[in-house]
Inverse folding.
């Protein structure tokens, strides 16, 4: 229907889309109600819980135990090392996988689909589950964390980079192919220069994610600051707990800020 | 020598790009291919280095049927054919010199090329090629910092660095203004004369074709409908090729050549243009 042909007033949004929008909103509202009901998160319970939280923060967490500083620093360094090593390794290993799962480079549709499928499966496994698996395989400690984050980051990076590869300008590749260059040369001279800024930026982004993930992974025994956080919580050493939280907050924020600045300058 | 014997090409969607083409192209010829949009000019040019593969017939390159080549033979054949594209097809974020050196990839082994260890003579040739088209001083600039005309000359330098016997150029000047178009076409003709490199160029302006071609191939809906020396070509020939009267749009412009000379000084004052303008003056 052409609005111009209608006499007088006509709706800005067609009726059909109005009904669609309303039904989506109704479904969302229903989901909220179910969620609140199932978790018992009635508003009064949330409000009554607040004084308890207040007492815990001001009675137990404050003041932090400042002298616990060295232990935390050591563990944070381990967390950083786990994230850095896992990221660095994945940055290299994701490349061949990214090229195999980019349809404009890998023209064999069988191989393409196999790699895509494997990567989709890998990405459905949460990092925490990967950590539990590797703690089981290689024992408690930093090594399990490195393995877990390595596979986790390969999944993310391969996806992000293969999408970048698929969106590049195909013309230069054709030119290099027409000079008689082989596939690796086409990739190195045609693709890499085009994806390099994104490649670096995504790698930094994954490093940020890995630092935060590696804090949590310690809870399941995969090394780093999460390991001592878990211990101190179990011993009710809340002064130590708050010291860990405080220092972790500062370090993670610092890493994020530096990394975001760097990424802004690259792309 | 390149020889088409009953070559046809059907695209996967069923469209016939080439219909029973028979051609013989000798070393050192300067050929311009003309025809309306969609006539199959690009298809003809791109089938010579098999960026598109003909589906029937024989395409002999130095006597060997290139349609039977395996992957390795195909790459080897391509190292002997340089190509120049309408949109230059440079890697924009890479330096001019690296772009030009990528012409030498076909004869550089994979490991060396990944490490950037090109042979000394290849690096010298790359720089000399840039010098021939008059933009040696841009060697370390990023490709996307150059003007369109300069970028097209980088791609000519890339083809020169490839050390080929044949240049294919698919509408090399379609994205350029008239004066720059003449600069680029003069570079191509100069290379054809000096190096005896076969030039096969798609153009869609009649006056340009007449000015630079020794031989003209006319195409219409996938068929070669004219093939002969430029000296025999008249306005009537073009009307036959196009299947309609000639329009003003089919001409670049009457005084384009003169304009080209005027702009040499102010636009891009480099050696290549000086060489080409001398050539223009002498004629
Ligand atoms: N990849 C393709 N798949 C299907 N049809 C194609 C393909 N490439 C070209 N064609 C068709 O083949 C015909 C010839 O195309 P071609 O690009 O060779 O024409 P052209 O003479 O170069 O035209 P132009 O002057 O517009 O560049 C056109 O009708 C075009 O639509
Ligand atoms: Mg074309």
């Amino acid at each position: 229907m052409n609005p111009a042909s209608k006499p007088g007033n006509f709706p800005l949004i067609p009726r059909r889309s109005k009904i669609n929008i309303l039904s989506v909103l109704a479904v969302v509202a229903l989901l909220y109600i179910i969620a609140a009901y199932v978790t018992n998160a009635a508003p009064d319970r949330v409000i009554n819980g607040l004084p308890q939280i207040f007492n815990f923060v001001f009675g137990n967490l404050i003041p932090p135990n400042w002298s616990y500083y060295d232990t935390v620093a050591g563990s944070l360094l381990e967390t950083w090392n786990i994230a850095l090593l896992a990221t660095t390794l994945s940055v290299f290993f994701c490349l061949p996988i990214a090229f195999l799962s980019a349809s404009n480079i890998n023209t064999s549709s069988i191989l393409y689909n196999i790699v895509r499928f494997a990567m989709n499966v890998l990405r459905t496994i949460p990092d925490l589950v990967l950590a539990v698996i590797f703690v089981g395989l290689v024992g408690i400690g930093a090594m399990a964390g490195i393995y877990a984050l390595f596979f986790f980051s390969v999944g993310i990076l391969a996806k992000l980079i293969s999408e970048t590869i698929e969106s590049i300008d195909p013309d230069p590749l054709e030119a290099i192919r027409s000079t008689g260059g082989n596939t690796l040369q086409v990739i190195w001279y045609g693709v890499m220069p085009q994806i390099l800024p994104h490649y670096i930026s995504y790698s930094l982004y994954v490093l940020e994610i890995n630092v935060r993930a590696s804090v949590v992974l310690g809870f399941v025994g995969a090394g780093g600051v999460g390991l001592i956080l878990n211990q101190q919580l179990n011993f009710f050493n809340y002064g130590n707990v708050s010291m860990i939280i405080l220092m972790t907050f500062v370090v993670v924020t610092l890493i994020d800020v530096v990394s975001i600045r760097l990424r802004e300058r690259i792309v | 020598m390149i020889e088409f014997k009953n070559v046809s090409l059907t695209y996967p969607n069923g469209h016939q790009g080439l219909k029973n083409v028979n051609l013989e192209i000798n070393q050192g010829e300067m050929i311009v291919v003309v025809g309306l949009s969609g006539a199959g000019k690009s298809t003809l040019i791109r089938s010579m280095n098999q960026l598109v593969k003909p589906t029937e017939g024989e395409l002999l390159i130095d006597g060997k049927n290139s349609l039977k080549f395996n992957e390795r033979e195909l790459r080897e054949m391509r190292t002997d054919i340089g190509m120049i594209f309408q949109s230059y097809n440079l890697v924009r974020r890479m330096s001019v010199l690296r772009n030009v050196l990528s012409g030498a990839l076909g004869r550089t082994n994979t490991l060396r090329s990944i490490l950037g260890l090109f042979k000394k003579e290849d690096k010298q040739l790359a720089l000399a090629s840039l010098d021939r088209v008059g933009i040696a001083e841009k060697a370390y600039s990023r490709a996307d910092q150059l003007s369109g005309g300069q970028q097209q000359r980088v791609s000519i330098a890339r083809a020169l660095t490839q050390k080929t016997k044949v240049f294919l150029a698919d509408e090399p000047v379609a994205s350029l203004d008239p004066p720059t178009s003449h600069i680029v076409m003069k570079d191509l003709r100069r290379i054809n004369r000096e190096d005896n490199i076969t030039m096969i160029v798609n153009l869609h302006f009649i006056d340009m074709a007449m000015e630079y071609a020794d031989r003209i191939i006319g195409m219409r809906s996938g068929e070669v409908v004219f093939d002969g020396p430029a000296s025999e070509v008249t306005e009537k020939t073009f009307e036959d090729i196009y299947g309609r009267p000639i329009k003003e749009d089919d001409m670049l412009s009457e005084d384009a050549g003169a304009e080209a000379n005027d702009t040499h000084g102010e636009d891009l004052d480099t050696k290549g243009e000086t060489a080409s303008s001398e050539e223009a003056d002498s004629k």
Summary: Chain A has a mean pLDDT of 87.
